[in-house]
Amino acid sequence: MNTVRTAAGENTGAQKVALVTGAGSGIGRAVAVELLAAGWSVALAGRRPEKLEETAASAHAGAAALPVRADVSRPEDVTALFAAVRDRFGRLDLLFNNAGTFGPGGVPVEELPYEAWRHVVDTNLNGAFLCAQAAYRQMKEQDPRGGRIINNGSISAHTPRPHSVAYTATKHALTGLTKSLSLDGRPYGIAVGQIDIGNAATDMTAGMQTGALQANGETAPEPVMDVADVARTVRHMAELPLEANVQFATVMATAMPYVGRG
Questions:
Q1: Is the pLDDT of residue 6 over 50?
Q2: Which of 79, 92, 147, 189 is the most buried (most CB within 10 A)?
Q3: pTM (2 decimals)?
Q4: CB-neighbour burial class of residue 192 (10 A; exposed 0-12, middle 13-18, buried 19+)
Q5: Phi and psi at residue 38, in whole multiples of 5°?
């Protein structure tokens, strides 16, 4: 599905082009809508076409949105996704590597099925790698050369929650991926950074306000922040000149139990 919503028809080339994975809901949707409102052309990637259409429909009139159904854990889907972006817009200035899953919540490590572990790794880590690799290939060859990749890490890239071994392990791995990509991208004008997000109000985090398991075994409600604040942070990182880079940013609900957690 490659439906384009744009009043002006063809991209003039003046607009920056972004690809947001996991754009059908939550943080991905908020970031996509923020970029569209700022005049970016945005490819919306996700597994559920109807959700991508909802994201496209929520953008302002005249925004250039390209919904593409893709499962980032499948190499063939990623190849087709980047081909669709290249065919429609001709280049890529930003990849927001956002697609991810918590996996089964609250499952002790000794009870976590291997299939669940593998699903989280395939989505959060392998999917991020496949998209970054495809972005690198395009950004190295396009003219003007270069671009930016922003990986969606997590507070869990620093401090885990109880019973989150698969999610936490992949988010720690994303930090290593970010550092390696940032180093390897220097000769090609490819800037790579990471945003670590804590308690943004989305469907995935809805339960935190009623009660989240703490390190001491208690369950306690936690504060959340507006997901629009995350979107504005990503936009700030995205709109820096390629000579500047936010290597790591942490944006979180001010009073959440992170500093001193546990």
A1: no
A2: 147
A3: 0.89
A4: buried
A5: -85, 5
